[in-house]
Amino acid sequence: MDHDRWGVDSIPGGERGMAARPRLSDVAASAGVSMSTASRALTGSGYVAAGVKVRVLGAAEQLGYVPNAHARSLKAQRSTTVGLLVSDLRNPFYAEVAAGATGVLREEGYTVVLVDDAASDKEELAAAHTFLATRVAGVLLTPVSGAATAFVRQHGLPVVEIDRQFSRGCDAVLIDNVAAAHELTTHLLRLGHRRIALLIDETDWTTGKGRLQGYTDAHRAAGVSVDDRLVIQSGFDAETVSAQARELLALRKRPTALFAANNLLAELAWRAAADAQLRIPTDLSLVGFDDAPWMSMVTPGITTVSQPAFELGVRAARVLLSRIDKPARARAVRLASRLIERGSTAAPTGRRPR
Questions:
Q1: Among the ranges given (41-55, 114-128, 232-246, 262-276), the one the predictor scored with the smallest mean pLDDT
Q2: CA distance 215 to 20
Q3: Is the fold of 77-175+309-335 the same as that of 177-308?
Q4: Which residues does 335 contact at the CB level (< 8 Å), separation at least 6?
Q5: CA atoms within 13 A on the CB side of 77
Q6: Tens digits of per-residue pLDDT, 244-260?
Q7: What is the rounded distance in angstroms from the CA atom of residue 127 to the CA atom of residue 87?
Q8: Which fold has domain 77-175+309-335?
Q9: What are φ and ψ of residue 335, in 5° steps?
Q10: Has domain 3-67 been given CATH number 1.10.260.40?
């Protein structure tokens, strides 16, 4: 390597290549104040004259000083880090949940460690171990099993489950899935549909179980029997879901309406209908669950249930912060959703809405 060309200071690992990280004492010396004054100005705890605070903050910025969060946590005898586990950040629903939670936590001075566990219970539990190793103050998660929640709670840390609930003794912030699915199914029944298919990924979690219950309860309330052959539990593999949707729409006595139980299933069902050259809503009414951006971009737009995903994250973060400050009896908070009617639903051919 040509040292003259690159300069000793720029050689990675060279004697002068690793500049010493600025310390609090450096900031204090630069600002001409004591270390205790510099600390109060940087943390916002305790009185510091306005002019002095401006001088300290300016010195910190000029030096590139970054506070040692771990040392600060040890001194304060409390962690300022929260673990956040979500199932799939590629899904707009989980991205919105994460955005809502991190916004609240940042405002309260917490650092968020965000992990996408890809809806894997093993990855979820591994992340929980990592959170504990890094001494987080609490954990937020959209659980895929009860293992991670149980593990964290065993170690005495507060946990809030979001969207799905596995542990009854744990705080949770949820959607009223039964009511939302009931309203969506009733909408189709009132239009005159009697063969309404349900495409659902799972029925074991509180989300899927609630949506299935809302679907069946709406039929029962309308005096319409459910054809079990039209209830398709698809799992999570996209290719499998697509194949099942195509088979469903190819039935000799196919459904006149299809209820897709989440936004990803709705997209795959929409594509299957297009492949089968079915016109929406003339040949098939389609409804979804979650108002993903694409649903208002296609023509016709997709009738769906809008979940307050951002608010789920906000409320969950606030519940967790309250538990960090003062442990209390766990409770479940349920948020309402909203039915958005667009052009993808209409009365089936030859029938008038009720």
A1: 41-55
A2: 63
A3: yes
A4: 173, 174, 175, 176, 308, 311, 312, 315
A5: 1
A6: 999 999 999 999 999 99
A7: 12
A8: Rossmann fold (3.40.50)
A9: -100, 150
A10: yes
Number of residues assigned to the chain: 354
Least confident of 29-33, 195-199, 324-328: 324-328
The one-letter amino acid at 224: V
Query: Per residue in 278-315, pLDDT tens?
Result: 999 999 999 999 999 999 999 999 999 999 999 999 99
**What class has domain 177-308?**
alpha beta
Scan for tokens 């899927």, then name that residue: 208
**Would you call 341 exposed, middle or buried from its count of C-beta atoms within 10 A (0-12, 13-18, 19+)?**
exposed
Core vs surface per residue 120-150: b (16+ CB within 10 A) or e: eeebbbebbeebbeeebbbbbbbbbebebbb
Q: Give, to the nearest 10 degrees, the angle between helix 24-31 and helix 35-43.
A: 100
pLDDT at 178 over 80: yes
Are the beta carbons of 112 and 102 closer than 8 angstroms?
yes
E strand or H helix at 260: strand 257-260
**At 43, is the secondary structure helix, strand, or coil?**
helix
At residue 18, the pLDDT reads 44
Helix (H, G, I), strand (E, B) or coil at 117: coil
Inter-residue contact 139 to 101 (CB < 8 Å): no
Most confident of 8-22, 53-67, 205-219: 205-219
Torsions phi, psi for 28 (to 5 deg): -60, -45
- Structure token digits, residue 336: 């309402």
Q: In 3D, which of 347, 265, 341, 260 has the Cα closest to residue 303?
A: 341
Question: What are the boundaries of each domain within the chain?
Answer: 3-67, 77-175+309-335, 177-308
Q: What pLDDT does 229 receive?
A: 94
**Which position has the higher pLDDT, 25 or 190?**
190
C-alpha distance across the termini of the chain, in Å: 82
Range of weakest confidence among 74-83, 146-155, 227-236, 334-343 = 74-83
Q: At what angle do helices 206-222 and 177-190 cross, to 10 degrees?
A: 40
Residue (of 126, 116, 119) closest to 95 by Cα position: 116
